[in-house]
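This is your field. Have a critical look at both lines of this record:
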Amino acid sequence: MLKRHAMLTHLRTNAPVIAPSLLKCDFGNLHKEVKLLDRSGFSVLHLDVMDGHFVPNLSYGPMVIRSLRKLTDTPFDAHLMISDPARYLNEYLDSGCEAITFHLEAVPDPSDLLSEIRRRDAVAGLAINPNTPFELAEPWLEMCDLLLVMSVQPGFGGQTFMPEVLQKVRRAREIANDRLIISIDGGIADGTIEKCSDAGADLFVAGSSVFDTEDYGAAGKQLAALARDTPSLAEESI
């Protein structure tokens, strides 16, 4: 597993990062799916954790992630869409997640949890929903390693991209310059990823645009090429 600084270097070195969201994979054949993703050369796997309370859906938890960790050395970017992330932090760190992102809507004062994630030598991420004003996240940017801007309502895959969130990406990049990893999740595909990269995102969570194709590797390379045509500030700083 990569420690915090190594993980941040890994993300910046591999930007633009295409992170397949396992929410869209074939859960009946997780072993095969992970091996396919590994052979396809993805540098990060995105794990969408849902509790059926913070979002109206259930996905998987630490036990499944611990099993996945045995199958691959690819770093895990865990997106905790759960109501009480601090309560379960140890379980997700112990299961092998290098990056932990939780929602501002679940933890309005995220300072203690962000600090604890960093203290545990993991990448500390904060997520904001489409309807959450950027100004609510701004005071905490200095404590974040990663900001995840949701471009759909969290809880379900296959939704339509919401372009109005791009202003949040632009503002975060203006404030944090190249220090912050900016991730975007929801509706990332040909036609949207270019706009996200142009706004300043450097990590792109991709679900349908990878898993609904016959060749995951080719899909990932195509998305990265589209993002690379409009490099973000983080890419320029490498």
Summary: Residues 4-233 form a domain with the TIM Barrel fold (CATH 3.20.20.70). The chain has one domain: 4-233.
